[in-house]
Amino acid sequence: MTEATELPAIIDLQNVAVGYDGVDILNNVQIALQSGSFTFITGRSGAGKTTLLSMLYLVKKPSKGILKVFGQNVNFSNRDTLAEMRQRIGVVFQDFRLLENMSVYDNIALPLRVRGMPEKEIYRRVVELLQWVELHKSIYKQCSTLSGGEKQRVAIARAVINRPDILFADEPTGSVDSEIANKLMRLFVELNKVGTTVIIATHNEQLTSTYNYQRIDLHNGTAKLYPALQRI
Amino acid sequence: MRRDLLIGQKHEVPAEDNDTSIFMYVLTSIYMYLFVVVLAIFMAINSMAGNWEKDITGSITVQVSPIEDANKHIDVAKTKEQLNKVEQFMEQISGVEEVQVLDDAAIQKLMSPWIGSKVDMSTLPIPQLLDVRLKPDAELNYDEITRGMKQLTPNASIDNHRLWLNRLIKFATSLKTIALAILLMVVAICAFSIYYSARTSLNINIETIKILHIVGAKDKFVAKLYAKNYAKIGLFSGIIGLLAAVPCIMLVGKYGISTGSGLLSGASLSSAAWSVIMLTPLFSLCYAMFTSYWTVRKSLEKMV
User: Fold this and answer.
1) Buried b (16+ CB within 10 A) or exposed e, B192-226
2) CA of A114: which chain B residue's CA is closest?
3) Tens digits of per-residue pLDDT, B16-70?
4) Contact B1 A119 (CB under 8 A)
5) Residues 3..32 of B with a Cβ closer than 8 Å to A: which?
6) Nearest CA to B198 among B209, B187, B214?
7) Which residues of chain B does A113 touch, with a Cβ-Cβ cutoff of 8 Å?
8) Are B216 and A89 inside 8 Å of each other by CB?
9) For B164-176, how does the pLDDT look when each residue is reduced to its tens digit (9 = 90+)?
10) Contact state of B8 with A109 under an 8 Å Cβ cutoff
């Protein structure tokens, strides 16, 4: 485990199983992630990284066991409570999942509008964030006209605009070159330093060896947490 | 701050200005046109039946057939004498408020649709009429009155309007029931259209909805976006339906009056009825808004 073991678990999986259509992909997952930790989820393609991630960002419910996020049992949370929990979570998808017919501004503003924030405050925050991801000149551009790298930065901006407690990223470096990948990782590290719990699903071994953080390895339907510095 | 940023929210759900929306504008406008027309018919029949009901309980007509002399000519003096006797008899009955003899001009006016207005009434064997106004809630024993009158003159008889007006009222009630059924049908079909249109739109925009959910949108947030769009459709369609229906209602009303029939003249729309009609766009707005809101909330529970 990491040195943050004394901190309260922000995510707690107790004998969790998860899958699709009654077939469990992962079984007996028993992992607790502390608040402020940085974790990689690794495993071969099809090992269940995306499935585990989608359960952790509360789109999917476990088929067995107990999943606690922010100390709340997800199994017994109603739809509104889950939505409120999701407002404290940011997700960066491999395929970005941007609303292509909307502007960069509208995409990034989405999580704040959902929370009912005044438009003036939304504008201030979006402009500030766009400068940070160096996209301020593209504020009015429609997302469909952006390059892959630009889309990724919009996706990251959307994920962090509401200053989430947990940031999930699914293969964030999968479709970018190594220079942009490193830049992205530095960005995630910066966010982690200010207290955001970061969880990244990746199959990029180079990434996990360069950045020495704990990781959950998925193998043969099981998940095991390996602390930083210690290797398999 | 740029205005296009402030209005950016309209892009959250691309449910407006697409084919589904245009279809809904057209469809709901037609429904609202039908709704307003049938509503007007319903209220007009209701008012007409109400007037007839009032007539039933408010008055009776006594008629005295003309008495003929030996030469088969009308004996005006004798008829007049019998009429006065019947008038006095009716006036002393408790429950009777006023008895009025209809003069030739009044009878001619009543008969004019059949015999025209240039006929010498005195030459025709037309009965003399007494319009008897009753006190409110008066309950008369018509059999007893008829017996009393027959003792005065066998030529007198009572028409208490009840029988034929009852038939008319039954007819009006069945028309009202049909109109109400049509109204309910239009409302139900409209609800189904909104339901399926909102469901279709949700299916088309499922990826957008999923993203909204991932960023923390509650079901009611998405439902409100849809409700806002459908409120616009409801209001616009309500206004279009109303604008199309009002001339039709006025035209039908005009034809109704031009028939000169006393029966149809009661089928007018009061100012209260017109107010109800004018409020239909507001009803349409609320109905579309709540139906879509409910549909989206229920659908989202199953979809995402």
Assistant:
1) ebbbebbeebbeebeebbebbbbbbbbbbbbbbbb
2) B217
3) 556 677 889 999 999 999 999 999 999 998 888 887 777 667 788 898 888 877 7
4) yes
5) 4-6, 8-9, 11-12, 14
6) B209
7) 9, 12
8) yes
9) 777 888 888 899 9
10) yes
Predicted local confidence at residue B9, as pLDDT: 46
Say yes or no for a CB contact (<8 Å) between A102 and B11: yes
pLDDT digits (tens, 9 = 90+) for B111-142: 777 777 777 776 777 888 899 888 887 788 88
Band of pLDDT at residue A3, cut at 50, 70 and 90: very low
Contact A115 B8 (CB under 8 A): no
Interface list for B 153-212 with A (CB within 8 A): 207-208, 210-212
Closest CA to B240 of B89, B54, B25, B58: B25
* In chain A, domain spans: 9-88+164-226, 99-152
What distance in Å separates residue B267's CA from the closest CA in chain A? 52
Residue-wise DSSP of A138-171: GTTSBGGGS-HHHHHHHHHHHHHTT--SEEEEES
Phi-psi region of A193 (alpha: psi -120 to 50; beta: other; left: phi over 0): alpha
**Kind and range of the H or E element at B209?**
helix B206-214
Instruction: Name the minimum distance, in Å, from the CA of B198 to any CA of chain A.
Output: 20
Nearest partner of B35 among B232, B195, B196, B240, judged by Cα: B240
Q: What is the ipTM of this complex?
A: 0.88
Give the residue on B whose Cα is nearest the Cα of A55: B214
Question: pLDDT tens digits for B221-258?
Answer: 999 999 999 999 999 999 999 999 999 999 988 877 66
pLDDT of residue B125: 79
**CATH code that applies to domain A9-88+164-226:** 3.40.50.300
* Closest A-chain CA to B300: A79
Q: Name the pLDDT band for B263 (thresholds 50, 70, 90).
A: low
> Are the Cβ atoms of B14 and A97 closer than 8 angstroms?
no
How many helices (H) and strands (E) would you count in chain B? 11, 4
Check: pTM over 0.80? Answer yes or no.
no
Which pLDDT value is given to residue B169? 81
Q: What span, in angstroms and rounded, lies between the C-alpha atoms of B65 and B122?
A: 13
Sort out which chain A residues have CB atoms less than 8 A from B4's CB and list them: 140
pLDDT the model gives residue A73: 94
Task: Say which of A101, A115, A120 has its CB closest to residue B14.
Answer: A101
Task: Calculate the alpha carbon distances from B168 to B46, B58, B132 in Å.
Answer: 12, 16, 21
Residue of B nearest to A82 (CA): B216
The B residues from 217 to 276 touching A (CB cutoff 8 Å) are: 217-221
pLDDT digits 0-9 by tens, B180-222? 999 999 999 999 999 999 998 898 888 889 999 999 999 999 9
In the predicted model, what is the mean pLDDT of chain A?
89
